[in-house]
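Hi Prof. W.,

I finally got the Atrial natriuretic peptide-converting enzyme prediction working! I wasn't sure whether to trim anything, so I left the full sequence exactly as given:
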Amino acid sequence: MTVTMERKGPRKNSWDSKISSISTVNATTRNYRSAQSSIISSDSDIRFTRKKLTAKHKCGCCIVATFILLLLLAALAVYLGYTFFLPQKLEEQIFRATFRVVEGDKFSLDLADPSTNNFKNRSRDYRERINSLFRRSPVRHGYIGTEVLALDGTEGKDVIVHFNIHIDPTYVNIRAGDLESILAKEISLKESLFFRNLTIDVKSLVVKPSHVLPQPVTSTEAATSPVTEKPEPPRVCSPLRFEYCNRMGYNVTTYPNIFKHRSIEDVLENSIPFRELVDAECYRHAYDFVCRVLQPSCRKGEKEDEMVLPCRGFCREFMTGCGGRMNENIKTFLDCSRFPEYGQGANCITKPGCVDELQSRAFSPRVCDGVVDCQDLTDERTCTYCSINHIHCGIGRVCIPKTKRCDGRTDCPDGSDERGCLSLAASVETIRKTEIITPHATKYNSEGFVIFNEKGEVGKLCTENINRSLPANQTIAVLHSVASSLCKTLTYQNVISVNVETDIENNVSYVKMKNPTAPEISFVRSKCPSKQVLKVACSDLECGIQSTHGPEGLKVLSKMATHGDWPWHAALFKEEVHICDGTLVAPDWVATTISCFQGQPKAEWTAKFGVTRLSSSTPWEQERRIIGMLKSPVEGSTIALVKLDDPLILNDFIRPICLPSENVELTSNRVQCNTLGWARNREQLQRIQVKMADMEKCENVSISSVNSICTETAHGQNDCNEEEFAGSPMICQNKEEDKWTLVGITNWRIACSKNGQERPRVYDKISSNINWIRDSIMNDDK
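And this is what came out:
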């Protein structure tokens, strides 16, 4: 088959193309012949000619260029004028106003909730009335709008309307009194155009700048002469009548609250700024917190009723989210350092929804894993292994009934249920009203009455049989022996005083010594007609002890830290960001490194104790602000001491470490050393075992001095899974003493290299600074 294609046109010879193809097909083979190549040709030439610009055209181009340049200069002048010479735009003025509707509208409970349709419809009606008034008033040019903040009142009675008025001061200069006059004039009319069918009490009308917060209510009586102030009457519980907080799980409150509000009327008058915080959604649990400070819950007490506030951690989270929106007057009262800490002897309310928050942050595996991650222990107490009304052991997946506390048999993994069966406290009442969260002591008391705890019942030690059966000198010896044994059990070194006093408490159980002269002290239940009880004072708490690893406690020190493993470890935060670590050397002093603070502008630093997971919280967690720093005077040393704003409350999970002697021995086989760091995701505290190394290894990676200690990991790169922050400690334990000592502090952050090889670790010696550290702590106590 042959195919011929021709292109017709005026230049036929130049564009003709022929394609020939011959194909022969048979049953076995196929032969192909390629077509001839196409030939393209052109007979035309293309030539370009450049024409020079004449003088006339050159002049036109210059004019255009000059015009463009002038436009650019004009634009630059306008920009500079607006930037440097135009007055700054005045900030919008906001005035807060309120009035009472006495006829034409009635208050109902659903108006207290801004999310209801009734509130939305009613507030829109009031907003349109107020807008219509001001848009026809002399301030209409500067009037921006209004917003209804809240509707208050008593059910079936008058409605109190709270609203804001927004003014642009660029167009009008106005004061609160001018706005109040405009409203009062319209309200006073018998037939108001804008408030038709409503009767408003003119005397209830108040307009003031939004930054002016009503001051706490105080007595208006002027003191004409010096008088003695009357003591505050005993606090009592009263019904909760603030409708805005009727969704809380309690129905009683107490006055005065922390804002010095002494009645429901005071609360209503000052509630609008707090409602604005809730509406702004600046914090997830803002509604709960606001109601708990305006209308705190109340519990019955022996002498007077008690106000129950949010816990300090709850307050700090609220202030982090909403603090920037608050008036300074409110911030003065909401000083979180004045709020109680959970589990530290005072009752308080933790933030709600801890388990839900863990799950929302993809931490579901932490629920019911045996490690406490919530202050109220809801992540462990609601598990299948923990029955209702049981107390969690604090460590491990074990809960016990309260009656198994001090029953003679160990039930908790760390033996905490059989520790503290004898303790010191100011009274039995303080023990009874403290919520039991775990068997661990929430606070070490160095002095007080001797308190026994047996199967959940508490009482005092009666000395009547000792005074009656033994001579005076032998009685004193027996009582001192009991006091010395008790102080040692409570990990105190010395006894300050031993006294017998008459008990003034009522409804108290007693025990007596079964045989005062026996080598082992045992107690039996008894009556105490004379009410002669023992009071003891101890001193010098033992340092470097892991209370949860005692004779009856945990036997193994795991790599991943559990609660109580390292009670002296501190995490240092700069404005809520974990920057460094430190070590507790005294109740209000932490040892760290100066490099944490070098080159840092002034910022708020805090220290957290009792945590092993940074994103979790515990009942034993305590937080303190850092208010001062001392740099080591030793040449070449980078160690620093930081001062806490308040001493810590010491317990099994927070207690200081020991300081070394000047000639501490680190090369002995009887000494094991560790450092503490965080997992690579900076979540879990863990230990790394280290050993001494030649200084030559460290000189290649860091600048060393006579105050330096060079170490390397005891198990090589297998331990290369953690990041050691600046200020992390090198701590060592003499196996014969079972006490941990702070030996060194790292100056820089230490982590694994890219190839997985662990680099040597350099620490500054504590022994070179021991005299300075002790002098600084002692001088501060004077």
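The chain has a mean pLDDT of 82. Does that look reasonable to you?

Thanks,
D.
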